[in-house]
Design goal:
Number of helices: 11
Oligomer: single chain
Structural class: mainly alpha
CATH architecture: Orthogonal Bundle
Low-confidence stretches: none
Strand content: under 5%
Mean pLDDT: 83
Radius of gyration: 19 Å
Length: about 280
């Protein structure tokens, strides 16, 4: 049991799970627009998420020498280095325009993490900004880059999907912020810190209703829309609503870092294995 727990901790702490969530959303985007499976794009998103999240989680603490290199952290560092090599490998397999846009999103990640200006905090510490930067980066990685790499022409459906994806990630982050409310610095001004847990949940529910409305609108205007996407997306949005409803400060870290982040993976697997 101790070994299984260590494996699970490494799986979550090394950002493999969140990387799979990003990979799943890329695959869903390709299914929505009937794009033939582009494994290079999916793998780039997976490894890029692993590197990005590990860099964000551990870079500042390591730079400030606030953590000791425990055994698991050494393995995570080694794994992240390997993931960085894989990012480079798949980066050069992407189309040139996709590479350029990917570098832009890399710049946003660095802005989010590193203090570029003397005596200034990074974007992660800018009051109330974190949730928007992270949501936008996820839209870029899971919508813009896959469609750009497949040379899909801009359409209304792409705009709707982008808004939906932003809402999806935004609401998932709201759940994280509710769980982390006790530990977050008050200067971060997260949504629950600014409007309270109850109003944060109401905001999340309203956004999920907007998501569903956009889904139905997209189906009505797009005769080529993959109806199986809709048949599974609405129940899974309901699952997110349940997760939001039961979120509170006493929940364990696995509530969000495993169960909530599993929702996109479950969504993709249902689409993959159920006709």
């Amino acid at each position: 049991m101790k070994v299984l727990k260590s494996i699970l901790q490494f799986y979550i702490n090394s950002s493999i799970h969140v990387g799979l969530s990003c990979f799943a959303l890329v695959q869903i985007t390709q299914l929505v627009f009937h794009i033939s499976q582009q494994n290079e794009m999916g793998y780039f998103a997976f490894w890029g998420t692993v590197v990005g999240y590990n860099f964000v989680k551990y870079e500042e603490l390591a730079r400030a020498k606030k953590i000791k290199m425990r055994k698991q952290l050494r393995w995570i560092t080694l794994f992240t280095f390997g993931a960085f090599i894989m990012v480079g490998y798949y980066f050069f397999k992407l189309e040139r325009i996709t590479q350029i846009v990917a570098v832009v999103f890399l710049g946003l990640t660095l802005l989010y993490t590193l203090p570029f200006f003397p005596n200034k905090k990074n974007a992660r510490n800018w009051a109330g900004v974190k949730i928007y930067i992270v949501s936008f980066c996820w839209v870029g990685a899971t919508v813009f880059l896959p469609l750009l790499n497949a040379a899909v022409a801009p359409t209304i459906s792409i705009g709707i999907l982008s808004i939906q994806r932003f809402i999806l990630i935004f609401v998932l982050i709201l759940i994280f912020e509710i769980i982390d409310l006790r530990h977050d610095n008050s200067n971060l001004r997260t949504v629950p810190q600014q409007i309270g847990v109850k109003n944060t949940k109401i905001l999340g529910f309203v956004l999920l209703v907007v998501f569903c409305g956009l889904e139905l609108f997209n189906i009505n205007i797009n005769i080529n829309f993959n109806t199986s996407i809709q048949s599974f997306s609405l129940p899974l949005i309901f699952a997110i609503a349940i997760a939001l409803a039961f979120a509170n400060e006493q929940r364990s870290k696995y509530y969000t870092s495993f169960w909530v982040e599993s929702i996109p993976i479950v969504w993709w697997l249902l689409l993959l294995f159920i006709p």
